[in-house]
């Protein structure tokens, strides 16, 4: 079975002092949860401080974004080599990056290629808007995002990337997709698209997360689904007790499926 994966995307929250406090609250509880991968993705300014607090644990660190170029005149950007110094993972193509900062499937593709070439595991986000969902375009949109986002990328090992399905209409709205609905999209669209590109063996190995208003009270429903391998958690990852409960639910869901 695929090992469950729970990542916390802090977005633009927490100063260095606040980050230290939150991680100090989280680490004991997260360390007590076994059998799953746990990842924290704080803002760039707090990565060094969080990295120091995670040293000696098996909790991994991720960045929220990166540029595809190694270095250059790109004021305000962070290169893959800079990310690789501290992080094992990087979130790429989050809907907020696409909506507010002009990211496209093409730039996602360049970032994924760069991350892989630097030994960073990309968490590649895909998902449809409410309008696209209501127009029954979910499959078309996600298929395009995956095919163009992973174009010309040779993947033979499913552990080299993670996919996060985040229906945009459910992010930060409190309106989560149903567990069954999310599982249908993840298994029938996302995983099948990976199989079409790289074969069934790779598709069965790639971990696919759900993201979009995941909370302690609904997490177990998602983690009991056959094709949902974990969660990319937003707001709930800013509360230590809440995030620990989500991690615990992922571990319990994995045991239930064995």
Textual characterization of the structure:
The protein contains eleven helices and eight strands. It is α/β, with parallel strands linked by helices and 258 residues long. The protein has one domain (5-257): Aldolase class I (TIM Barrel, Alpha-Beta Barrel). The chain has an eight-stranded parallel β-sheet with strand order 7-6-5-4-3-2-1-8. Helix 1 packs parallel to helix 2, helix 1 packs parallel to helix 11 and helix 10 runs parallel beside helix 11. The radius of gyration is 17 Å and the shape is globular. The termini are close together. The mean pLDDT is 95.
| Strand content bin | 5-15%
Using the coordinates above, name the CATH class.
Alpha Beta
Give the strand order of the largest sheet, numbering strands 1, 2, ... along the chain.
Answer: 7-6-5-4-3-2-1-8
Rg from C-alpha positions?
17 Å
Number of domains: 1
Helix proportion range:
40-55%
**Tally of individual helices:** 11
- CATH third-level topology: TIM Barrel
What is the CATH superfamily label? Answer: Aldolase class I
Poorly predicted ranges:
none
Q: Mind telling me which CATH architecture this is?
A: Alpha-Beta Barrel
Shape: globular
């Amino acid at each position: 079975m695929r090992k469950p994966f729970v990542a916390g995307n802090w977005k633009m929250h927490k100063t260095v002092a606040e980050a230290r406090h939150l991680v100090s609250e989280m680490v004991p509880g997260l360390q007590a949860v076994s059998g799953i991968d746990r990842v924290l993705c704080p803002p760039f300014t707090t990565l060094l401080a969080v990295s120091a607090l995670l040293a000696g644990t098996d909790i991994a660190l991720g960045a929220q974004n990166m540029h595809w170029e190694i270095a250059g005149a790109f004021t305000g950007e962070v290169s893959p080599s800079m990310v690789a110094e501290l992080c094992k993972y990087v979130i790429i193509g989050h809907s907020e990056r696409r909506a507010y900062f002009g990211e496209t499937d093409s730039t996602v593709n360049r970032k994924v290629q760069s991350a892989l070439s630097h030994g960073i595991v990309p968490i590649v986000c895909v998902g449809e808007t409410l309008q696209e969902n209501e127009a029954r375009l979910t499959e078309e949109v996600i298929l395009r995002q995956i095919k163009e986002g992973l174009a010309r990328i040779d993947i033979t090992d499913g552990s080299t990337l993670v996919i996060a399905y985040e229906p945009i209409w459910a992010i930060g709205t409190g309106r989560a997709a149903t567990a069954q609905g999310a599982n249908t999209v993840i298994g029938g669209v996302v995983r099948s698209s990976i199989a079409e590109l790289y074969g069934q063996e790779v598709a069965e190995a790639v971990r696919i997360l759900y993201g979009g208003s995941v909370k302690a009270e609904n997490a177990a429903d998602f983690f009991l689904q056959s094709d949902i391998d974990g969660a990319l958690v937003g707001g709930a990852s800013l509360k230590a007790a809440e995030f620990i409960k989500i991690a615990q639910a992922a571990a319990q869901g994995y045991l239930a499926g064995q």
